[in-house]
Design brief:
The protein is an alpha+beta fold. It has two domains: 2-124; 139-279, 2-Layer Sandwich (Muramoyl-pentapeptide Carboxypeptidase, domain 2), CATH 3.30.1380. It is built from seven helices and nine strands. The strands form three sheets. It has a five-stranded antiparallel beta sheet with strand order 5-6-8-7-9. It has a two-stranded antiparallel sheet with strand order 1-2. The longest helix has 35 residues, at 49-83. The model is unreliable at 16-26 and 126-141 (pLDDT under 50).
Length: 281
C-alpha cells in the first residue's frame, strides 16, 4: 500500500510538470480516438495546452481525497481485523502493518499537499495552468498562440503589413477547430480582420485605438468577415462557430453596430454577452 501511494504521488507530481510544460507550447493535439465521457476530448477535436492542463489538475483533485478515503478505510478494516484476531499473533502483526502503512500514506499525502500548497496554492485548484495569473510580460507572452501557424486566413491588412495574428490558447484552439470545420473548399469562407498583432498583453491590434480596453486587447476575441456574406453563409458560419464553442456578436446586423464598428462582420469571442445581438453556443 505504501509503495502504491508513493507511486501515485510521483505520477501526480510528474503530471504537474507536464502541465506547466504544455502551457508554454502552442501545439494543438488532435486525438484519432477520443477519450470516452470527457467533453472536449473527442475524436478529431483540437486539444490545446489549456485543456490538457485542466484535465491533469482535475485528476489530481480527485486523487487527493480518494487516496485519503482509501487510507482511512484501510485503517478501519485493519483495526477490525486486529480486534477480531483472537490472540493470533500473525493476524495481529498483519493488521498492525496495514495500519502503519496507511498512516504513512496519509502522512505522505499531507506532506505532498503542503509542498504543493507552499510552492503555489493555485496548483491545487481547477484552472488553466497556462500562467495567466502571472503578471510578467515575458510570461504573458507565452500564453498567446500564433494563429498564422494554423494557416487561419487573415485580411489584406495583415498580409500587406506583414503582421502576425495572436490569440489566447483557448481562443486559438477554438478558431483552429472552426477553421477545420469550414476549410472544405466551399462557402462559408472567412478571414480575420482584427486581432492582436503583438504577444505581450495588453496587445496592439490591427486597428489599434479601436474599442480600447475591449477583449480585442487581451486576445480573447477577433473580428471575422465572410468572403461571400449571403444570409445562407452567415447562418452556416454561425452554426459552425457555435459548435466550436464560440460566441458571436452579429455586426452584420446594422442595429447591432456601435460607435466603433468598422463595417459588417462577426465579432467572435470566448465569452457571450447579453442582448439580441449576441449568439451563444
Amino acid at each position: 500500500m505504501k509503495k502504491n501511494l508513493i507511486n501515485l504521488f510521483v505520477f501526480a507530481f510528474l503530471g504537474i510538470i507536464i502541465a506547466f510544460s504544455a502551457a508554454a507550447d502552442t501545439t494543438c493535439y488532435t486525438f484519432e480516438v477520443g477519450i470516452p465521457f470527457i467533453k472536449g476530448f473527442g475524436a478529431g477535436e483540437c486539444v490545446g495546452p489549456a485543456k490538457l492542463s485542466t484535465m491533469i489538475v482535475k485528476f489530481i483533485e480527485i486523487l487527493f481525497p480518494l487516496a485519503g478515503i482509501l487510507a482511512f478505510v484501510m485503517i478501519v478494516v485493519a483495526g477490525f481485523e486486529y480486534a477480531t484476531s483472537g490472540g493470533d499473533t500473525n493476524k495481529q502483526k498483519d493488521a498492525q502493518d496495514r495500519i502503519a502503512n496507511a498512516i504513512i500514506g496519509l502522512v505522505l499525502l499531507f506532506a505532498f499537499w503542503v509542498i504543493l500548497n507552499t510552492i503555489n496554492p493555485d496548483i491545487l485548484k481547477i484552472q488553466d495552468l497556462s500562467l495567466k495569473s502571472v503578471t510578467s510580460p515575458a510570461i504573458k507572452q507565452a500564453n498567446m498562440t500564433k494563429l498564422n501557424d494554423f494557416s487561419i486566413p487573415l485580411s489584406y491588412e495583415f498580409l500587406s503589413k506583414g503582421y502576425s495574428a495572436y490569440a489566447t490558447f483557448d481562443l486559438g484552439d477554438k478558431l483552429q477547430a472552426l477553421f477545420t470545420k469550414t476549410n472544405k473548399g466551399t462557402d462559408p469562407k472567412w478571414y480575420i480582420t482584427e486581432a492582436c498583432i503583438t504577444q505581450t498583453l495588453p496587445c496592439e491590434t490591427t486597428y489599434n485605438g479601436h474599442e480600447i480596453g475591449s477583449c480585442h486587447y487581451d486576445g480573447t476575441c477577433v473580428d471575422i468577415v465572410l468572403t461571400n456574406a449571403t444570409d445562407d453563409n452567415k447562418q452556416k458560419f454561425i452554426d459552425m462557430a457555435k459548435s466550436a464553442g464560440l460566441s458571436i456578436y452579429n455586426e452584420y446586423d446594422e442595429k447591432c453596430w456601435t460607435a466603433g464598428t468598422t463595417g459588417g462582420h462577426f465579432h467572435v469571442a470566448l465569452t457571450c454577452g447579453s442582448g439580441s445581438c449576441w449568439i451563444c453556443p
